Amino acid sequence: MDYRNFVREVQDFPKHGMAFCDISPLLADARAFSEAIDAMAEPVHTLQSTHVMGLESRGFIFGSALAQKLGLGFVPARKPGRLPGDTFHEDYTNTVGEVNALEIHQDAFKPGDRVLIVDDVLATGATAAAARMLIERTGAQPMALTLFIEMDHLPGREKLSGLPVFSVLRY
Predict the structure, then answer these.
(1) What pLDDT, on the 0 to 100 scale, is given for residue 17?
(2) CB 161: neighbour CB atoms within 10 A?
(3) Which of 16, 37, 75, 79 is least buried, going by the fewest C-beta atoms within 10 A?
(4) 147 forms bridges with which residues in the sheet?
(5) Is residue 144 part of a domain?
(6) Pick the residue with more confidence: 27 or 16?
(7) pLDDT band at 70; cut points 50, 70, 90
């Protein structure tokens, strides 16, 4: 399947000079979305992961579907202040240069858990690197990052050295 037919490129969003990959057309097509989830699952199904961690917010969409397909629990990595209880917090600088952060519950994982990180797009790798740090702070092991789109002209993979990265579509 040519997944590019299901991604709308929006110029000058979220900032002038940037291009945004809108996955709304993919999500609106049940067959294409199902096949995308299958493609994301294929390289990671043998990793013996125990959990999927989806990154806010579009990573929730792919992550929950992937967790269901793989028969794993799902843990959301949220923006600050959106989770009740005690959390771990990790700051990062996003693609547009803004300081952002992710949080997970401190009891989201336990030592020995094997966590698959899921997101929609890999650009600079800052969000996924923050997710990796959060997993490691719980004593769990980050297994891989699987995602739908990888912006291969940006240094995302470099920031995730040592973590396997699997993408369905590369721009």
Answers:
(1) 86
(2) 8
(3) 16
(4) 119, 167
(5) yes
(6) 27
(7) very high
**What is residue 4's DSSP assignment?**
G
Q: Is residue 33 part of a domain?
A: no
Number of domains in the chain: 1
167: left (phi over 0), alpha (psi -120 to 50) or beta: beta
DSSP secondary structure, 109-133, as one string? --TT-EEEEEEEEESSSHHHHHHHH
Q: Evaluate if residue 96 carries a pLDDT over 90.
A: no
* CATH number, domain containing residue 120: 3.40.50.2020
Mean pLDDT value across residues 43-66 = 97
Give the pLDDT score at 18.
85
Structure tokens at 29: 């097509």
Once rounded to an integer, what is the mean pLDDT over residues 8-28? 93
Specify the long-range contacts of residues 24-30, CB closer than 8 Å, at least 24 apart: 26/148, 27/61
Query: Quick check: is 55 in a domain?
Result: yes
Nearest residue to 58 via CA among 118, 128, 3:
118
Its domain, for residue 149, covers 46-170
For residue 149, tell me if it sits in a domain: yes
Note the Cα 53 to chain centre separation in Å.
Answer: 8
